[in-house]
Amino acid sequence: MLRFVLYCLLLVTGFSVSAQPRSDNFLVRLLREQASPALLRVLDKPDSFHYQLIYTRIDRDKNNRPHFKNFYYRLDANDYFNPASTVKMPLAFLALEKLDSLRSYGIDKETPMLTDSAYSGQTPAHTDTSSADGLPSVAQYIRKIFLVSDNDAYNRLYEFLGQEYINRRLGELGYPDIRITRRFVPMSEEENRHTNPIRFVRDGRTLYRQEPATSHFEFDFSHPYFYGNAYYDRHDSLIHAPMDFTRHNNFPLADARQILQSVLFPGSVPPVRRFHLSPDDYRFLYRHMCELPKESEHPRYDTAEYFDSYTKFFWFKAGHRPIPPYIRIFNKPGWSYGFLTDIAYIVDFEHKVEFMLAGTIYTNSDGVLNDDKYDYEEIGYPFFKEVGEILYRYELSRPRKVAPDLHAFRIFVP
């Protein structure tokens, strides 16, 4: 009986029965020795904040080839966190990969993509006022995903790819634990299995038509995950029970970090784990993964709302700090249900510094989910800011045998 009660308590707090989280003494010691009292209060309460961190040290050899060493703080794939918008990153990569397979139809990333509807809950998309020509395209959706984490852009790529294709392809790439089950709009599980008919057009001609699809992918929902003590459902009714994340998207932190590395440094992973992207695709992604809202003309954003660090959690988000022109951050963050996550590659061209950081934290002191009352400003963003600052200071001070040649990432010249 005692064992059953303990198991139920673990489920309610968001844990599953598993091995201890993985931590490296180097990273634990570095952060704790330099942490402010506020950061220490977070680090001292892992059961409340469910934080996980990966710091990746990058060293170049004499041929400028990067070598990676990961350090972990509480890495635990069984301690579920809601990945929110971080799942938009692999869908952007998969969409470009799928487009490359359609080149024989005269299609590229800028070709207008018109989405129709054919099933319950689906909506069409025939225009996009943010684009230069007023038409939607895969390229424009990807721009909006990385610039401001646009939800509709993600939904349209989800519909272009289809749920089954997404999960099968990620499994082929070596990521069987990633689970992408849904759009970011209220829909039933069955509705999310159905994706829209799509047309690629140019000058009034249909170049390619994709029929509506139904996913038969079999997900593993055998590991239940619950958080909080109450939540608001899609009808704004308060439910006095923990929120069930068992069938939500899942994107383990180590997988997210590895996917980012595989695109920024494709030569560092085996060919079978690389997305099939063209040199132009890579240039396109590098540009828009680090672009700031103020640098974008189409789409154009109000920079008072979408400030420089709007999607840059590590180091900059807290306090809306400006980003120095010699620093670029190639990343994808996510925020939802009290969870904050960021997967980032940070480059300092002036000091020839590069490193990767991935982290997540849960900040929801009242225990109520889906009420838009979370501790992002008080705890979450300061957590990312300080962790980023500590690791950046360490990177500035540590010796390197070979200074990195970072020209491949110098997209914007200050």
Topology diagram in text:
Elements: H1 2-12, H2 25-34, H3 37-43, H4 46-49, E1 52-60, E2 66-73, H5 88-100, E3 113-115, H6 138-148, H7 151-161, H8 163-172, H9 189-193, E4 194-195, E5 198-202, E6 205-210, E7 213-214, E8 226-227, E9 230-232, E10 238-239, E11 243-244, H10 253-264, H11 279-290, E12 327-336, E13 339-348, E14 353-362, E15 368-369, H12 376-397
Parallel strand pairs: 9-15
Antiparallel strand pairs: 1-2, 1-14, 3-5, 4-7, 5-6, 8-11, 9-10, 12-13, 13-14
Folded structure, characterized:
- There is one protein chain.
- Helix content is 31%, strand content 18%.
- The chain has one domain: Beta-lactamase, CATH 3.40.710.
- The protein is built from 12 helices and 15 strands.
- The protein has a 5-stranded antiparallel sheet with strand order 2-1-14-13-12, sandwiched between helices. It has a 3-stranded antiparallel sheet with strand order 3-5-6, with helices on one face.
- α6 crosses α7 (151-161).
- With 414 residues, the protein is an alpha+beta fold.
- The model is unreliable at 1-18 (pLDDT under 50).
- A hairpin with a 5-residue loop joins β9 (230-232) and β10 (238-239).
Q: Which structural traits does this protein have?
A:
414 residues; alpha+beta; Beta-lactamase; 5-stranded antiparallel sheet; 3-stranded antiparallel sheet; 15 strands
- Strand/helix succession: HHHHEEHEHHHHEEEEEEEEHHEEEEH
Count of distinct strands: 15
CATH architecture: 3-Layer(aba) Sandwich
Specify the overall morphology. globular
Q: Percent range for helical residues? A: 25-40%
Unreliably modeled segments: 1-18
Q: What average pLDDT do the residues reach? A: 93
The CATH first-level class comes to Alpha Beta
CATH superfamily: DD-peptidase/beta-lactamase superfamily
